[in-house]
Design goal:
Layout lengths: L4 H13 L3 H14 L4 H13 L3 H14 L4 H13 L3 H13 L12 H16 L4 H10 L7 H14 L3 H13 L6 H12 L4 H8 L15 H15 L7 H5 L7 H18 L4 H6 L3 E4 L2 E4 L3 H5 L2 H20 L12 H17 L3 H14 L4 H14 L2 H14 L4 H13 L3 H8 L9 H7 L3 H13 L3 H20 L3
Antiparallel strand pairs: 1-2
């Protein structure tokens, strides 16, 4: 065995199958002492090194592989990635440049294409990661424009570099070009647009703003002065609204620049529109305006006590209460309206009020409001779901499961509400009923639990294990947790 690289390689594979990765690496290295140019062993070693985050060892192994087989493109790219991960940005760029230099003139990889374009953008991102190197990154970006297919990413990177360099007019033009390409509802582009309008290029502020997710932008993240808000409102009103009047982002972002009664007046037509259409997520949308300043940034209020005293919340509640009163008395949002609303509008107005009761922690009033909704329309599935959520928050999980099951029975083809019903039943200790519900969306042959295990339905296994634990069935609960633990190990090993 001491003289056979095959035996040491197999020895390492056995260690890897036992998840003893450190010993497997030792065995691979011993095999390489006997056969230092075995490509398969080197590849296996590199995979384990990156699995164990041995970045320096990974880089050395990938360099050896590149030396032995320099005509393979993956070896070049893997070595460049290894240098990138070890922090050698210039080294990674140098590797890519040497690889491109080995290509002959007329090679497809030098022409415009997806692979060549993505490689050019990756090389450019390495230049941008070098501190205070945005000027060189911008020049490189302009030089590689002809090979890049993804013009959206190209323009986004260009706008970021121009912004960081303080070239606000150019960044503004790049943002408008992105809008013209159809990215007008990408909120991160709107952050670039706002930063260019306000001429802000603080490194930390720009990076934090561009990392925002969802519908958050500069205006809902950073506390702006009145003059800055007015400047942005004028820009959106005079420049973007005429070009993109139907854009959701262009309509929504100016609302984040308003306060007090002005915000209430602007939200009024939008709320009426969504209530008429029956939009269940309207309450979640309105909660985005409950912001307070904390540690120099704006954060969403989560505590029901703070939400209850927030001025925007109080104004919205007052507005919704007026809607409900008028819809009950004259079937209009306002007595001065010309047309009457459909009966369903009152339902969604009460549903919205119930959602507002939920966020302020008034569960008893919210549940009573949901009961009125069900008296109005007994077939409204969303109402059952909101009622169940408030019952759960109030501590009556069994009643919550029963309420949600009533809503599930109205739409038996809805997998989401079926899964939610199963989850609530498990929380309430209704194990057998939960299995019957979840079995409606599994294959009928055999044991449903086995089918759920094969489908890797982890949330069900965790909820079932917790249900059994609460019932003091320690053995069955431990068995479920062990099965889930085994799956996590399989996920982890899948990266090896």
């Amino acid at each position: 065995m001491r003289r056979s690289h095959v035996c040491w390689h197999v020895y390492g594979l056995l260690y890897r199958s036992d998840r003893d990765y450190n010993e497997a690496i030792k065995a691979y290295k011993q095999a390489l002492r006997i056969d230092s140019e075995n490509l398969q062993i080197l590849r296996d070693l590199s995979m384990l090194q990156i699995q164990m985050r041995d970045l320096n060892g990974f880089m050395e192994t990938r360099q050896t592989l590149l030396t032995l087989k320099p005509n393979a493109k993956p070896n070049w790219l893997a070595f460049a990635l290894a240098r990138h991960m070890t922090g050698d940005l210039r080294g990674a760029i140098s590797v890519i440049d040497i690889y491109l230099g080995t290509l002959t003139e007329g090679s497809p990889e030098l022409d415009r294409g997806f692979e060549s374009g993505e490689l050019a953008l990756y090389r450019n991102s390495l230049l941008a990661e070098i501190p205070n190197n945005y000027e060189e990154a911008l020049k490189d970006l302009e030089a590689c424009e002809k090979v890049v297919v993804d013009k959206g990413s190209w323009l986004t990177s260009k706008a970021k570099y121009q912004l960081m360099m303080g070239d606000f007019d150019a960044a503004h033009s790049s943002a408008l070009a992105l809008y013209e390409r159809g990215m007008v509802d990408d909120f991160s582009i709107h952050s670039i647009y706002m930063l260019s309008i306000l001429k802000l290029n603080d490194d930390k502020l720009v990076k934090d703003t561009l990392r925002l997710k969802g519908t958050r932008t500069l205006s809902s993240f950073y506390p702006l002065t009145k003059d800055q808000k007015q400047l942005l409102r004028v820009a959106y009103k005079e420049e973007l609204t005429p070009l993109y009047p139907k854009s959701y982002a262009v309509q929504r972002i100016p609302l984040t620049l308003m306060e007090n009664d002005e915000l209430s007046a602007a939200l009024d037509p939008l709320c009426r529109k969504d209530l008429t259409k029956g939009v269940p997520s309207l309450c979640s949308e309105l909660c985005c305006f409950f912001l307070v300043e904390k540690d120099g940034v704006l954060v969403k209020v989560e505590d029901p006590v703070d939400i209850k005293v927030h001025p925007n919340f109080q104004r919205i509640v007052k507005m919704v209460d007026v809607y409900i009163e008028n819809l009950r008395s004259c079937q209009k949002f306002s007595p001065s309206d010309e047309t009457e609303e459909a009966p369903s509008t009152l339902l969604w107005a009460m549903y919205l009020r119930g959602g507002l009761y939920e966020v302020e922690g008034e569960y008893e009033k919210g549940i009573a409001t949901m009961d009125k909704c069900l008296e109005h329309t007994p077939t409204a599935v969303d109402v059952y779901e909101l009622k169940a959520r408030m019952l759960k928050s109030a501590g009556d999980i069994k009643a919550a499961a029963e309420a949600l099951d009533l809503g599930r029975d109205l739409d038996r083809q809805d997998r989401y509400i079926n899964n939610q019903t199963t989850r609530y039943m498990l929380m309430a200790g209704m194990e057998d009923e939960a299995l019957k519900r979840i079995a409606m969306f599994t294959r009928h042959e055999g044991n449903p639990e086995r089918n759920l295990f094969d489908m890797q339905c982890s949330w069900y296994e965790l909820e079932l294990a917790a249900c059994l634990r609460r019932q003091d069935q320690w053995g069955r609960s431990l068995k479920k947790y062990c099965k889930f633990s085994l799956r996590v190990v399989i996920f982890y090993d899948g990266n090896a």
